[in-house]
Write a structure and sequence with these properties.
- This protein has strands at 2-6, 12-16, 24-27, 34-40, 45-50, 55-60, 67-71, 78-84, 87-92, 97-102, 109-114, 151-154, 161-164.
- With 179 residues, it is mainly β.
- The two termini are 28 Å apart.
- GO terms for molecular function: Wnt receptor activity; Wnt-protein binding.
Length: 179
């Protein structure tokens, strides 16, 4: 799945398959400017920052169990968001500090460091890098991912795929080759 935020005409948090199909709103009320987004891959939760409401909220992958982690002036100007173990990590773009927020109670907020020009944050940890099983976009004997001449995108599950073409090309009638 692909998770993303949108604060155009109607602000929302959405998800879709990697090929763009099955687009679903998971949050579409009491939300104004969702920006940074982070996933808890183990427990299947989506965290986001709303810079207009000065809040960090969470919801499960289906839009249920929504609640506010923290809200108020102390978390103004947040950009970037990452989750690791019991904490959320974010960057305060006003004073360029990295903040650590307890994601279970929201009361434990600590400034860890200051960085010049930081706008994004990521946590890389081996446990969050799930083992890849055999999937529909594996390279075929001819060196083509999923048998696609340009791009192979996973679809509704790891066994299904959709071929797409680079800009300037169109997908052939075979659904695999680009012309």
């Amino acid at each position: 799945k692909l998770f993303f935020t949108d604060y155009g005409n109607a602000a929302k948090v959405e998800r879709c398959d990697m090929d763009g199909m099955n687009r679903t709103w998971i949050v579409d009320s009491k939300i104004e400017q969702p920006t940074a987004l982070a996933l808890d891959l183990v427990n299947k939760y989506v965290y986001w920052v709303d810079i207009y409401l000065d809040s960090v909220e969470v919801v499960d992958y289906h839009g249920r169990k929504r609640h506010t982690i923290i809200k108020g002036r102390q978390i103004r100007h947040l950009c970037g968001l990452a989750v690791f173990e019991s904490y959320l990590y974010t960057v305060n773009s006003d004073n360029l500090s990295i903040l650590r927020i307890n994601r279970y109670n929201g009361t434990d907020v600590q400034s860890l460091a200051r960085l010049d020009n930081a706008k994004e944050i990521r946590v890389y940890q081996k446990r969050t890098q799930t083992a890849v099983r055999s999937h529909a976009c594996e390279v075929d004997p001819y060196g083509m991912p999923g048998g696609c001449s340009h791009l192979c995108l996973l679809s509704s599950n790891y066994k299904a795929r959709t071929c797409r073409c680079r800009t300037g090309f169109i997908l052939g009638s075979d659904g695999r080759s680009c012309k």
